[in-house]
Design goal:
Number of domains: 1
Strand order of the largest sheet: 7-6-5-10-11
Number of helices: 6
Shape: globular
CATH architecture: 3-Layer(aba) Sandwich
Mean pLDDT: 88
Largest sheet: 5 strands, mixed
Distance between the termini: 41 Å
CATH superfamily: Glutaredoxin
Length: 223
């Protein structure tokens, strides 16, 4: 039911819009909200309770160049994700075309990475991913990684990144998925969700991405 509800048109703008209303109520410099479930725990030493926010599930994947990528290697980095498959006859070309535009604008920013997870790792080998990245126009040896992991891992990741993705024999190409871009901070918290098929949502991503990059830069200065 969770995945089917995300597939319904309009879910992401409503979720993101509600989050923006909460963020806009603050007087201090605007920060993107942390999305997802949270756990409020009593402080054993007294004082304010601790709020524990959900993080992206741990993963180990290999990219189009055969290099290992994990959630730990992305610690402290901002990254933007989507889920696709190389033989997708539906939304993938449009979705990754929009991500390419974002990459062309922000791809050289230090501390920013782009990660595209295939949901068809059986077919999308390292060689297939390498060819796909080249045909899309992603620069070789760049910080845009097209990665494959196990099926169980990738679908768990999709859920953790609020992205609908599931095998579906009735869907074009054998998989049903939506075009979500998820923006993740250096602690593994999801900070933004965007519908890649909606130009207004992609524009919102390009407005909000610098906010998270500025927050990350400020955090590095303090550490």
């Amino acid at each position: 039911m969770f995945l089917k509800s995300l597939l319904r048109r309009g879910t992401l703008p409503l979720l993101a819009g509600a989050a923006l209303l909460l963020a806009g109520c603050q007087d201090e410099p605007r920060r993107l909200p942390i999305l997802g479930e949270r756990d409020v725990r009593a402080n054993p030493n007294g004082g304010p309770a601790d709020t524990i926010f959900a993080t992206v599930p741990a993963f180990r994947a290999h990219d189009q160049n055969g290099k290992l990528l994990t959630n730990q290697s992305l610690a402290g980095q901002v990254y933007l994700t989507d889920f696709f498959f190389a033989t997708c006859p539906g939304i993938c070309p449009k979705m990754n075309g929009e991500l390419l535009k974002v990459y062309q604008k922000f791809g050289q920013t230090p501390g920013l990475h782009f990660v595209s997870f295939t949901i068809d790792p059986d077919h999308d080998t390292t060689a297939v991913l390498h060819d796909y990245a080249q045909r899309l126009g992603a620069p070789a040896e760049a910080n845009w990684r097209f990665v494959r992991t196990s099926k169980d891992s990738v679908f768990a990741l999709a859920r953790g990144l609020f992205t609908a993705a599931m095998p579906d024999k009735a869907a074009p190409g054998g998989f049903a998925h939506n075009g979500t871009f998820a923006l993740v901070d250096g602690r593994g918290h999801v900070r933004g969700l965007y519908d890649s098929l909606d130009p207004k949502e992609v524009a919102r991503l390009q407005e909000e991405l610098p906010l998270l990059l500025a927050e990350a830069q400020e955090s590095r200065k303090k550490s």
